[in-house]
């Protein structure tokens, strides 16, 4: 199939196929929740925790495949347990790279074992690792929608305290905010978003939806509300355009999505500042004053 | 004796952990509208005192009262600026947002349609002379600018007690004086009580009503004239210590092995 000049006709053509409809529906939900949750992942510097969760989810998906269950359930179970576990490491959990890394390596190994016990080894492994949005069933679309609603409702409730605890944990704690509990809720949000995003981009490419859009948006705006909106727009744009191109070109959707967000990131990071240097961020570095050089008399 | 002016009263207070007592037998009061310095060597337990006041830690024994009650976490009458509180320089969030969270960060929900906090945050920034920083990123602010933002974040909820943990570290003398004048103005104009942890008392000395000196597992408190004497500090450190004064009123304490403040952290 080829592009026509008129995108309207292209879309009509695309939506004739139920599998493309499902892909757009699930992809849209995933882009919205990944764009929102991704902002907090970037703000809290929890990229590595998000990365680890998706790998922990891999063994969950593999285990589900092995017992003939829907991989999404395995993902949800393993990432939620893993997320609560990482949050349970306590304050500064995001910095527990070593512990998290050790667990994620083990979980990946476990996932390999589960998949090797399964007959359709290569095919299933491929779709979990790199996503298989074009094969999403209608029941999975509904499941994704339900997950998306849970994320949105939870996020709407915890939004301000979570923002406070993410930006200024010590003060939030002193003000009586349940920072530990908020950390657990945050990791559960990441777990759910990750589990559904795996359908679109797979375990290995999860950053393209969970981190890159938010990191790009953060370079374009300074208020959390605006950053989140831009992040969602980028994730949506990449998902839709990726699906659109993949319909006509014989390459994986996840390749297109990762490439689109990457190009956008490069443009915003390196080209945009040259166009409007004064508007984006102050160029000057924070100058930390050297400590009082006078002889201290105390 | 407790009066209505007492903000903090401590009686025979012992702080730390059961297997590691940080200091003991502290008894002091802080009255409304006082500017109090908490000083002492590194690791003496200055921040521990703040944690007790914030209700983040319980005393091992003795009594501590704040506003006539046992300290509890989340007391809205307290504004708090933690120690060495910095942002990575790629934190691209404008200052105003942080100050807003000081006002409304405890409220659940998105607050999408409520803009009271925005006005309150602007007013707080005005109070610390930092409206010009409102839309600048936290990550690019200098140490002195950040301390102003933190002060605004703490003041935005109109506290009656401010706990400032080493706000002067990393500031040059000019910025140090500016910040102290600002804090002093807050103390005097709104009769807010301020406890300020510092490792060098000299810059603060002109503004102080009271000193809480924590060293050697003990606590001495009173006016600077009472505490900063050879007798008082010798008793505190448990050895011969001498307090010297120069012509400008700066003091030097001679005879302390751990010369705090001499080395940068």
For the record, give the distance between the C-alpha atoms at the N and C termini of chain B, rounded to a whole number. Answer: 40 Å
Strand order, main sheet of chain B: write it out: 5-6-7-3-8-9
Largest interface: A-B, 42 and 63 residues
> CATH top level of the largest domain in chain B?
Alpha Beta
Quick one: biggest sheet of chain A?
none
Count the beta strands of chain A. Answer: 0
CATH superfamily of the domain at 13-204 in chain A: ABC transporter involved in vitamin B12 uptake, BtuC
Detailed description of the structure:
The complex is a heterodimer of chains A (298) and B (265). In chain A, helix 2 (18-43) runs antiparallel to helix 9, helix 3 crosses helix 9 (179-201) and helix 12 (224-248) crosses helix 13 (253-275). Chain A is built from 14 helices and no strands. The longest helix of chain A is centred in the middle third of the chain and has 30 residues, at 138-167. Chain A has a domain at 13-204: ABC transporter involved in vitamin B12 uptake, BtuC (Orthogonal Bundle). By secondary structure, chain A is mostly helical. Chain A is 76% helix and 0% strand. Chain B is of the alpha/beta class and 265 residues long. Chain B has 2 domains: 1-77 and 160-265, Rossmann fold (3-Layer(aba) Sandwich), CATH 3.40.50.300; 82-158, no CATH class. Chain B is built from 7 helices and 11 strands. In chain B, the strands form 3 sheets. Chain B has a 6-stranded mixed sheet, sandwiched between helices. In chain B, strand 6, helix 5 (173-190) and strand 7 form a beta-alpha-beta unit. In chain B, helix 2 (95-104) crosses helix 3 (116-127), helix 3 (116-127) packs across helix 4 (143-155) and helix 4 (143-155) runs parallel beside helix 5 (173-190). The longest helix of chain B has 18 residues, at 173-190. Chain B is globular, with a radius of gyration of 19 Å. Chain B starts with 5 loop residues before the first strand and ends in an 11-residue tail after the last strand. The relative contact order of chain B is 0.17. The model of chain B is unreliable at 260-265 (pLDDT under 50). The interface between A and B is large, with 42 and 63 residues.
């Amino acid at each position: 199939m080829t592009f026509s000049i008129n995108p309207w006709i292209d879309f009509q053509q695309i939506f004739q196929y139920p599998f493309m409809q499902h892909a757009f529906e699930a992809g849209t939900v995933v882009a919205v929740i990944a764009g929102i949750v991704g902002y907090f992942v970037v703000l809290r510097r929890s990229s590595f925790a998000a990365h680890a969760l998706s790998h922990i989810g891999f063994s969950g998906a593999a285990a589900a495949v092995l017992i003939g269950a829907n991989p999404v359930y395995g993902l949800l179970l393993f990432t939620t347990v893993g997320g609560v576990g990482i949050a349970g490491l306590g304050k500064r959990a995001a910095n527990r790279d070593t512990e998290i890394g050790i667990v994620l390596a083990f979980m990946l190994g476990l996932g390999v074992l589960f998949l090797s016990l399964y007959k359709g080894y290569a095919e299933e492994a491929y779709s979990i690792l790199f996503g298989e949005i074009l094969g999403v069933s209608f029941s999975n679309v509904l499941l994704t929608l339900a997950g998306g609603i849970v994320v949105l409702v939870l996020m709407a409730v915890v939004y301000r305290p979570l923002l406070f605890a993410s930006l200024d944990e010590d003060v939030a704690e002193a003000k009586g905010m349940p920072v530990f509990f908020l950390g657990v809720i945050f990791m559960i949000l990441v777990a759910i978003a990750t589990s559904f995003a795996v359908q679109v981009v797979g375990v290995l490419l999860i950053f393209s939806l969970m981190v890159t859009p938010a990191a790009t948006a953060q370079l374009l705006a300074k208020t959390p509300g605006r950053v989140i909106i831009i992040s969602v727009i980028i994730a949506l744009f990449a998902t839709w355009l990726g699906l659109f191109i993949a319909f006509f070109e014989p390459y994986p959707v996840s390749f297109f999505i990762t490439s689109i967000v990457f190009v956008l990131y490069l443009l915003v990071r390196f080209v945009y500042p040259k166009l409007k240097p004064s508007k984006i961020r102050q160029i000057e570095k924070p100058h930390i004053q050297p400590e009082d050089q006078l002889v201290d008399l105390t | 004796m407790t009066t209505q002016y007492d903000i903090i009263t401590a009686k025979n207070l012992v702080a730390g952990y059961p297997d590691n007592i940080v200091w003991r037998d502290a008894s002091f009061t802080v009255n409304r509208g006082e500017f109090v310095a908490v000083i002492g060597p590194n690791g003496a337990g200055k921040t521990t005192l703040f944690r007790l006041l914030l209700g983040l830690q319980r005393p091992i024994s003795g009594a501590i009262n704040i506003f006539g009650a046992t300290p509890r976490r989340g007391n809205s009458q307290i504004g708090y600026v933690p120690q060495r509180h910095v942002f990575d320089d790629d934190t691209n969030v404008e200052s105003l947002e942080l100050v807003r969270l000081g006002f409304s960060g405890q409220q659940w929900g998105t607050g999408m349609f409520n803009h009271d906090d925005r006005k309150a945050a602007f007013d707080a920034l005005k109070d610390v002379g930092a409206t010009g920083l409102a839309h600048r990123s936290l990550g690019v602010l200098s140490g002195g600018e950040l301390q102003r933002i933190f002060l605004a974040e703490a003041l935005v909820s109109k506290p009656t007690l401010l706990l400032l943990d080493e706000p002067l570290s990393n500031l040059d003398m000019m910025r140090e004086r500016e910040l102290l004048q600002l804090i002093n103005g807050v103390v005097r104009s709104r009769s807010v009580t301020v406890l300020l942890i510092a490792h060098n008392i000299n810059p603060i000395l002109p503004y102080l009503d009271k000193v809480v000196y924590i060293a050697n597992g003990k606590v001495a408190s009173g006016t600077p004239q009472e505490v900063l004497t050879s007798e008082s500090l010798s008793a505190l450190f448990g050895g011969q210590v001498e307090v010297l004064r120069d012509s400008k009123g700066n003091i030097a304490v001679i005879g302390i092995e751990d010369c705090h403040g001499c080395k940068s952290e």
